[in-house]
């Protein structure tokens, strides 16, 4: 049975932990506001970029190599996680989805390449002896567009060399502060579905130097934009998950402190009662 001193030490330790989790929650909340602002500003831009490419692709004679469908001999899966933990099931959900996707592709007898963003994904696949084409770490929490260019440049280069034939990104999409959903986005090859009334809509635009050349310029840019959006979504989701996890940890610490305080009071009361009984017993012994 723990002594009063042991219980008191545990209460002090839990109080110290509560201060840490409370501070981490406040830091995560501040980072979330900045990340959420960047993400919400990026969403309409990324969506509009896709719409522009969709409308322009129908009026060109030769498809860009990034839009050409070819036999899928090698599939590249880009998994986006965080560099740090303490964010609940944020990384676990992503990694489970990635494992499931890889298994499904292999079941269909496709070769699969894995590239990762974040230390958590790198360590996860490394422990399972999964060979990774590329790893990018140190991005979580301090995302810069230069990092996006490196990732996009590597993927585009290997796709044009026909080292890989399809690229899929798996990441967490931000919904609300308490809700993040795993998404699987097909990045390459870019689809160019027909849009009803496309021919008429293109007639009102004059392209300089040419529609083909403009499309060839913005297609690689779109790869960067879609990767950037996925990273921003992941960053906002990470901070939201961490804030929620730290809030729950703080509540659990409060409950544990209450429980330990009750245990301490009961033990203290039992100790006092025992001492009183010893005193009464001694007095009775002296009377005899």
SSE layout and pairing:
Elements: H1 4-57, E1 74-80, H2 90-107, E2 111-117, H3 119-127, E3 132-136, H4 145-160, E4 166-176, E5 179-188, H5 198-202, H6 211-287
Parallel strand pairs: 1-2, 1-4, 2-3
Antiparallel strand pairs: 4-5
Percent of residues in helices: 55-70%
- Sheet/helix structural class: alpha/beta
What is the rounded distance between the termini? 35 Å
User: How many beta-strand segments?
Assistant: 5
Average pLDDT score: 88
CATH class of the largest domain: Alpha Beta
* CATH homologous superfamily assignment of the largest domain: ATP synthase, F1 complex, gamma subunit
Q: How big is the Rg? A: 29 Å
What is the total number of structural domains? 2
Number of helices: 6
